[in-house]
Amino acid sequence: MLTSKINPQEFTEVYNNATPFAHINFLNLFDEDKLKEIVKEFPIMEREMSDKSGRTTNQKQSFKTKHGEILKRLQPKTKEFCKFMNSDVMVKWLRDLTGIKDLVADDTLEGGGPHTISKGGFLKMHVDFNVHPKTRYDRRLNVLVYLNDKWDKSWGGDLELWKDMKEDTFKRTYGSVMNNTIIFNTTDVSWHGHPDPLNCPEHIKRRSLAFYYYSKPDVESEAHNTIYVERPGEKFKK
pTM surpassing 0.90? Predict the structure, then answer.
């Protein structure tokens, strides 16, 4: 399903020296026709996805592992792609890109899989949970694959990466357009999100697939949940 003949090892230095933290984005990394087939399955899956709305996350739908294994609940094309993303081929590709040699996939898709955000939705700046709740492995890597064809930039929804949460921070932004893939290290300073409400039409949704990768620690880390932080001058609503 990888369409690109990119040798990931040629980008390892670029990846690890990127600012504000180790990351990279690739356009057209995957077979776009296959991604468009996945998009067609989203309306069916969204009927079963859970909604999360509140001060830090709004109008976001995703599958929850507590309701059953996510992979079993996916539509066929989506399931096929998720299996590929957890395959030995893809994990090796990511190891070669990042230099994280002990990287492993998460077959449970904890927190991952299909994500949908509707008009008015947002995901405030945050760092992710750091320990898998079942395996207790350390979370090391995020891979986000965006699925939004003909997305208008005025609708918002760009992914923001921040160096820190100070007013003078350096940040990078990436569009959530079709077949844009963003890969980044998961750490306690990898601040990311799309914190402003989407301004898309009611019938348009911001869709993506998320995959998280782990490594087995020598000593179990102290676990924390997702940590959200206000931007300078921002106050989360009560």
Answer: yes
